[in-house]
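for ur thesis appendix - Renalase. copy paste whatever u need, i formatted it the way the template wanted (i think)
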Amino acid sequence: MSTVHPIAIIGTGIAGLSAAQALHNAGHSVQLFDKSRGSGGRMSSKRSDAGALDLGAQYFTARDRRFVEVVQQWQARGWVAEWTPSLYNSRNGQLSASPDEQVRWVGAPRMSAITRALLGALPVHFSCRITEVFRGEQHWHLLDAEGNSHGPFSHVIVATPAPQATALLSSAPKLASAAAGVAMDPTWAVALAFNTPLETPMEGCFVQDSPLDWLARNRSKPGRDTAMDTWVLHASSNWSKQHLDLDKEAVIEQLHGAFAEMIGCAVPAPALSLAHRWLYARPATAHQWGALADADLGLYACGDWCLSGRVEGAWLSGQEAAKRLLEHLQ
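the 3d part is after this line
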């Protein structure tokens, strides 16, 4: 049975779009809202003079059968490709080849290609930050930062990081309390582009004992612009917490220095550099909720923080939120 009024979904990351797709496929009308200018959330990519740069999620893996099947469909449609980087580990300043052989997937030609394809022609309000979710006599309404009201909606799915979801779930105190209990760690991301390729076979590296946690040769991913040698560096959660309010130029300088120190080859001044702070990069601990739901109220929440903290967890959480909503409608 189709709802008379559309279902509102706040957030167009992988969780929100997973839920939107499932509901749309079941014949329901949805409306999406996102505070950013485009879809993707932490899977978004940034366009630059050096090509598209994946500043958030670097890749993803697929373990759950349901997600494996959908990733195979994405691959058939050209939305994703397998990434087989030359991987290393760095520990105590020593580099060693990584024996890790798990299959890694990336969006093609950039990570945000996946969410753009999932969004398709679904109705969406970008640059629209929802600040309040409230219920009238029978229906839900949303209030945005500009003071505009949106609605009526039959149900609402909140698909934002847990700290942002807490306020939006205030009509359901149990859900708000669960979200409020989820700590999320920040990550500083820095992109560097060099006119001359660095003389290293490294294309990805897991880093310990450093301000850095991870680095990737962005142009080694399928479909990327290879005119410049582009790298993305992720700081560790601890370093990011300690330097949360550092200005971007200082962040670039310090992480560029850490990169030059560990990579084992000459690193010149970059032709292009930029920094981005992910305030809610990943949940500090994993949960097994699947999704949060108050079916009687018609309010739901999903996101990577409801499961594993990974891209797969976000997609599965969106599916779970849609499933619970659909079950209540039957």
